[in-house]
Amino acid sequence: MAGINRRDFIRLFVGAAAVSLIPSKARASETQHSSSLVEFTDDLAARISEKMAELLSGESSIKASSVTKCYGPDRKVNGCITLLESYGAPYGYVCLDVNKPGLLSSCSLGQGVTHPVYEAQPTPRTLSSNESSHVLMLSPIDFCIYDDTSRCFYFENGSTYSIGDSIVTLSDKPDSWSDVMIDVSEISSNYNISGANYIGQFDAVRRDDILAQTDHYACVVTALSIVSSKMDIASFYLEPEIYMEIWHSTNTRPLPDDEQHREGKILGSTRTEYIVPGFQAYALQRGHSIIGTAQSSPSYNTFKQCVDSQRNSVLSAGFFGESSRGHAMCVQGYATLSNGSTSFNALAVADGWDDSGVYLRYTPSDYRYSHAAMFYET
Hints:
This protein has helices at 6-13, 42-57, 184-190, 207-214, 219-230, 242-249, 275-285, 300-308, and strands at 3-5, 37-39, 62-71, 77-86, 89-97, 104-109, 135-139, 142-147, 152-154, 160-162, 181-183, 192-198, 216-217, 253-254, 266-269, 290-296, 312-319, 327-339, 342-350, 357-361, 367-377. It is 21% helix and 34% strand.
């Protein structure tokens, strides 16, 4: 669900004497080492809620009866509701919000008290508190529950809120490229490969080489530079000027100033709708007529068919809840990797940063968005 800072975890459970000792914030961040975090699980939420209830009421008999995850409008887990009981009877609730200092969003204690969200009556059925992936928290006082059939959220006052598609449990999703990339050097000792195919010899361009030659870097341009080499149009290492040709033809633009973190260099971003026509224009300037197609949310079989047809492609993708931008890579093969009883589909890609290949776990539902740009020469 999220992480809670270890220091604050200790503050809560060691010597807690007042609600002021509730942890300052629960969060999970790529900028923090995992060793400094305690996973914010349902069990931990229950223990925090019980401690809060005891400190507020003085009653030691209050126990958590259920923990229900809450989602924001962006479908990101943002807290939970813990229902409480005393001697088997309802005794209120504690609502925790991982984005709030102190975690406590709201609470109510007393015999027979339950959270108002469970009084909502969606049609065609009533949801119960154990359906934990279907509660929306819009604000500390605005909650509703989700109905799979109508794909609407129902408030206790009878109003509805449509989110369009089903809830995504972010705790089950990757949130960094290190979660889905496996270096080629790790494959032989840890995985068995089956059902594999590749497009010729592996090709890559190092980010440091690109920056040294052009003072610019954009992942889409890098991926297309590799496609250019594989299609025998031009190679960056023989003609480094192709990088800026592709940059301009794809309408790549510099990132905002606050995202420029390499002194004297320009980092850029390319909109997916410019990838195919931009590369076609670049290739035509160099005397090559290229057919290109684009597809949103491509399946694994889409890239498999490209590789089997020896056609080059670029995958662009981004994660759920990701604060940073997505990434783009040149796809050069595919394989099924297995390790014991676990197996998964992977794409062989040039990651755009180094010159070694990586295998990318690819299940479209793991990504907030994905896009394929596919090319072949007439």
